[in-house]
Amino acid sequence: MDASSAKRALHPYWPRDLVIPSYVENDRSMSEILGFLFSVSGVFLLVTWLITGTTGRLGMWRRLAMCWFAVCGFIHSVIEGWFSLYHNSLPGDQSFLSQLWKEYSKGDSRYVIADNFTVCMETVTACLWGPFSFWAVYSFLTNKPYRFVLQLIISLGQLYGAVLYFFTEHRDGYAHSELGHPVYFWFYFVFMNVLWIVIPLALIMDAWRQLSAAQTHTDTSKTQKNKKH
């Protein structure tokens, strides 16, 4: 490796010839960053689980779905919201959430270079699916008639974003990560994102069944009413 190549590679990201002149190495460890993410997510999950248990009318799976939406609200609004606001200054910033994104970028360097797709996708996610996720929790707690419509809209948006996320990187030949790395590729890039395919798919099917049942009931009621007349 010549001197210019060595200078270009003074960062942990792929491809190795990526130029990030403003990059400053994290002073927080991986364990600190992941510990924060999973601890706060765990608090949202636990609090939501406890609150939903007070209603007495929600089953286990419905309560777990609400926990999912609460955690999504936190991740979309706070974590992804931070990226949406500060993506341009991310490489040199040492704020905790910026360091979180620099750590995650070891699995997908598109974030540390403010790739157009990731900025647009995360901005939409932060502005729409974050607030909508909290709204979904509220709608189920208060038994709003539109609750499954919200579930369907949010889950479709999450699924669409995740499919585009993987597909655009696939078309790039997985150039923005160390392909096959057990942590950076399989855990950061694959596992932490495939959740937004598997769980939304299950929630879409659930909303489909609930809304279809409601429409069937409405149609049946109308038919019976017309027969009486």
List keywords for this structure.
229 residues; mainly alpha; 7 helices; 71% helix; disordered N terminus
Report on this model:
The chain is mainly alpha-helical. The chain is 71% helix and 0% strand. It is built from seven helices and no strands. The protein has helices at 3-8, 30-53, 60-86, 96-104, 116-141, 147-171, 184-228. The chain starts with a helix and ends with a helix. The model is unreliable at 1-6 (pLDDT under 50).
Shape: elongated
**Range of strand content:** under 5%
Number of helices: 7
Order of helices and strands: HHHHHHH
| Rg from Cα | 21 Å
The largest pleated sheet is described as: none
* Spatial separation of the terminal alpha carbons: 87 Å
Give the structural class: mainly alpha
Compute the average pLDDT.
Answer: 92
Number of strands: 0
> What share of residues is helical?
over 70%
Low-confidence stretches: 1-6
Number of domains: 1
Main location: membrane
Transmembrane segments: 33-52, 64-85, 123-141, 148-168, 183-204
Organism: Kryptolebias marmoratus (Mangrove killifish)
Keywords: Isomerase, Lipid biosynthesis, Lipid metabolism, Membrane, Steroid biosynthesis, Steroid metabolism, Sterol biosynthesis, Sterol metabolism, Transmembrane, Transmembrane helix
